[in-house]
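WARN retry 2 of 3 for item q-0093 after timeout on previous attempt; input resubmitted unchanged.
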Amino acid sequence: MASRKSGLFPQSVCPRTHADANEKVAYMEITARSFWTLIHGMGFGALYLLACSGALVELYRRYCTHNQSLPTERDERFLRIYLVAMAALAWLAVLTGAYIIYPWYRAVPPPGTANLASFPQRLLMASPTTSGWHSIGMEWKEHVAWIAPISITMAAGVVLQYGRNLKNHPQLRAALLVFVWTSLFASGVAGFFGAMINKNAPVEGGPVIHIVQGETK
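OK item q-0093 returned
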């Protein structure tokens, strides 16, 4: 049974009234805030990291090998759609993190609050063993993360503008690869810090969502 502190798929076993008093209803639960954190990190963020690796392989195959033939129109259309979809994923990851998750993370507890479980920023800062995850990790995450969508949007713009003519612009091709590598690095840093921060001080709260229900004896 997962701990509620994991912030991902917390479970609980909740007794319910049945004809058989010995039966219990077992729920796998997740709070609404944890669910949004899951969408932000393991949804948009993880998919983007996977997409980055695929983009780098395709760009290397196309521009960094000895293949001198021009890409077909179908291949070119696929790359354009792929990079535009990547840019959309990157912006969704950053915007959900900045405008949905982050306000919950930095919520200020009322004076005299002893239990800081619902206030992740203050929970991290309350202990010298975890304060660095905020002062270093979150400070890096909230700034570096923006580089990812900006860089991949630039890469998508270059491909949309030049298309098959990129074969004739070696400096532009090099810049394109730098944009994608930069975006991958920025998203990787943000993803690492986000996972470690959520492990030490998960964003939780809001309505409870029952994912799976079953009965136990």
